[in-house]
Amino acid sequence: MVSRVIPVASFDLLLFGATGDLAQRKIWPGLFHRYIAGQFDENCRLIGVSRSDLPREAFQDKVRASISGPDEDDAEIAKFLELVDYVSLDATGERGWDKLQGVVREGVVRAFYLSVAPRFFGPIARRLEEHGIATPDSRIVVEKPFGNDLASAQELNAELRACFQEHQIYRIDHYLGKETVQNLMALRFANSLFEPLWNSSHIDHVQITVAESLSVEGRGEYYDQSGAMRDMVQNHLMQLLCLTAMEPPSKFTSNAVRNEKLKVIEALEPVLDQDIARGQYRGNANQGSYLEHCGDPESRTESFVAMKVNVASWRWAGTPFYLRTGKCLRERASEIAVHFRSPPHMIFPGIDAPDGNVLVIRLQPDEGITLHTTIKDPGPGGMRLKEASLDMTFADSLSDEEQPQDAYERLIMDVIRGDQTLFMRGDEVEAAWAWADPIIAGWAASGRKPGPYDLGSSGPEDALLLMHRDGRRWRPIGS
Ligand code: BG6
After folding, report:
1. pTM > 0.85
2. For the chain, which terminal residue's Cβ has fewer other Cβ atoms within 10 angstroms, N or C?
């Protein structure tokens, strides 16, 4: 059988923030998995960069700790660690940059991954350029948050663009690296079944839910500066909305796809205050409340938000998109549920029919796709209808080799390949902030407190009312 892993060209990856939380949890394990999958070989180098003054061996020990596990082979870990080097430097000063310059090689792909706070993006980019480490072909990867409003995002874009061109800049939204999110494009554009129905004539509404069961304990102070809107909606849910609503691009190239996503963001109508519900989780005997976790009893930051969003376009006029995300909800469950309209005429009089068809694209857990249909309730006793699902759980349908990999694995390899399709373009991020800013400003001006909701619930009551008012209801979280 032909291997499904297509090796990438030789590269030097310089990981800034190499000892940080994201690097330990996602980036090092992701690189290791790609290495053992055979996607890159011994001609590649992984250079950790951070402030701590560590010998190479001590740094390798940290990397070892982040990739070791019961299923990992020590011999493979040892081979991987041979590719790992370390340089200590001062991101905003001069220490260490000459050494870094001496470490990078000519003739291989060069990528800088900035897993650091955004205030370091500009200073690091400048120093990479000043020390001749950045070349016209090198790539720079930045993590979210990409600004906390339009003005700060524009500033970051200006700082990066002063040293790199747009085709060199990779802004990560890890949701785009999730297999099911990409599958949404395959579902829509590689099948002829759905696209004719993918419009307001056939779709009643769409629900996009990203529910988390974890609290913000441990990162409450940081989270309180952003809230669910900045942390999740402006980026992750926005990307899901774009991929669901966008027009078919003429081809699957980075700019064709991103042009279509941008058009969706630009077509978003301002969201009315009455179409938004915000919440903060309560505590109980075992767990603290949002206000305790963020450390500010007066905080007005939301740990939950739900809203109705309208896309002003021929395709979507009259079909609202309901977005919902929050912490401490009843389950970790993310999905896009496309609710089709009910049949125009019911030929079975006096029979309770289930709701119209719903196509559910499950992002996590149990990645897969389910189509809820209506069938005859089997057996005698006349014509009764019931709901039945056509279910494809990827774990069941795919072989072990084909199981979805972590989003970071895919995204880092795309950087090396030079494929920006699953990364946000600068104008896209700015458009998303231009849409989000007035909503957030409206909350600040009103001074209203988010409504409380119970731990493990589906969010505050206002979120239910938001739907009920429109004669609709949320799908149960985790259903
Ligand atoms: C991050 C947010 O971007 O995404 C976190 O900052 C959130 O608050 C996380 O928990 C969710 O990612 P995932 O992949 O676990 O759904």
Report:
1. yes
2. N
